[in-house]
Amino acid sequence: MSYNSFGHIFRVTTWGESHGPAIGCVLDGVPSRLPLNDAEIQHFLDKRKPGQNRFMTQRQEADKVKILSGTFDGMTTGTPISLMIDNTDQRSGDYSDIKDKFRPGHADFTYMAKYGIRDYRGGGRASARETACRVAAGAVARKILGTDIQVRAALIRIGEHEINRDNWDWDEINHNPFWCPDRDMVPLWEKYLDDIRKKGSSIGAIVEVQARGVPAGIGAPVYAKLDSDLASAMMTINAVKGVEIGEGFNAAYLGGEENADEMYRDDNGLPALRTNHAGGILGGISTGADIVCRFAVKPTSSILSPRKTVDNQGRETEIITKGRHDPCVGIRAVPVGAAMMACVLADHLLLHRAQQG
User: Fold this and answer.
1) Element (DSSP H or E) covering residue 138
2) In the prediction, which pLDDT does 285 show?
3) Beta bridge partners of 27
4) Fewer CB in a 10 Å sphere around the end CB: N or C, the chain?
5) Coil, strand or helix: which one is 212?
6) Nearest to 337 by CA among 48, 30, 123
7) Is the pLDDT of residue 57 over 70?
8) For residue 346, what is the enclosing H or E element?
9) From CA 112, how far away is CA 103, in angstroms rounded?
């Protein structure tokens, strides 16, 4: 299998399967002499791990990370950093009834069409379990970014229910199970998802990721655009079907006068933007304004409602997917999206230093 890596200088390679003994990643390009220990990575993994509330899969994984290489005396050495996370709660038997059937909405058929063999236990390499590796990598990426650049993410829509942006409070996202920045929306989402969960169904969501403190001038104007790399990174997250930067698709409804971000001279005599319809990126290069990216996550394809499908012999049949599945996989995608933005920004920051000093 090719293409298990992403990034230019800060390069992340992930490995492992959902029901294998472990998953992990190897990080190339990490500068030396950065303080790094297991606990700093674990802090972010704990935000993503399953089983934390009734609105996500009840698979009980501790997601304990081990640094296998690349550090000495609590500092990075400049050599490849290898991270490993043991899988401790596999239930491969949950998939034995459907091992010969293709699950609608999953990668079962396309994987088999490409490789001629597939690991049916939870999707194998195509499982969202792999995203734990990305979150671990994102923790290291944040060390490269330093404290001046802050990357955060929130869930802004579940199904037909979207937050009121006037109520946005970043402090609120750590006080509810949805990473929701609108306190008033939480009770509605709880009832909404409880109903969906009890029906054995699922629903989609939209995640917004923001980065504050990114200096102007990061990125490239043609084939390594900051926004194209961000879009590519977000699209690699399981179940993501759309990405937008700034106004995104809404820009198609705006006039030129409204969409253009007028400029002024700030208190330090530097150029600044009055608005941020561009989402912090123009011509593939950061403007110094907040970088804003959103992505849409489709409903979890594993549901209890019977779905028509075919088996690996081409015979028509029905399938019900049992097991421990998220009624809204978008919830666990929030820390993953933040990690992917951190990785892309760290990569581009190192690219900028390499070219511009």
Assistant:
1) helix 131-145
2) 98
3) 12, 81
4) C
5) strand
6) 48
7) no
8) helix 330-356
9) 12
